[in-house]
Amino acid sequence: QIVMGVDPAFTLGRQSAYSACWVAGVTDTGRRDFLHGWRMRMLPQQLRAKIVYTFMTFRPDRCYIEANAAQSFLVDEVRQRLGGLASCVHPVYTLANNPEDTLEEAVSECVALIESGQATFPYQGSEAQELTEQTFTEILNFPTGRFTDLMMSWQIIERGMRKMESLERKSTRFAGIAASIARGRHPGRGGAGITLANLLGPLKPKNL
Are 183 and 198 in contact (CB under 8 A)? Predict the structure, then answer.
């Protein structure tokens, strides 16, 4: 599948943070092959247009956008611009909204994926070299480095994929429960089946 991660920022000052994006292909074995990226300072309307253009160029299966606080409106605006493809865009709430997460854990995850050969980066052409080297610089210089935007756009992909995997597991579990209930209501379809009481019995408090 193709995935896209965006770490947004909304200012143009020379000391301001950058908006950053990585697009990656994820293989059946879990390897992340990074295909394209960008890093620049933009105003909100420019950033929205850049995200939409990148999305339409690579057509990712899922686009993850950091949506902490003031960033949340960007997800809605991108969805509106994409119309029928809006369901591919998902908000990701990162460090500011998840006290249990730490940048140290994020950096460790990046390093582990690189060292195990589960993350590859483009290096053909000066722009690709610059983005790859900047990503590695942010990882190696953490926590004293000035920027973390490209590293965080990668982490937004990782967090987004974990979120979707969790939702898919829950969906599969609930579908199984629903099927079991249906079989319990219609025992003729496959034996006695499982009833709702059977499913909920172990969860019932002993004093009830």
Answer: no
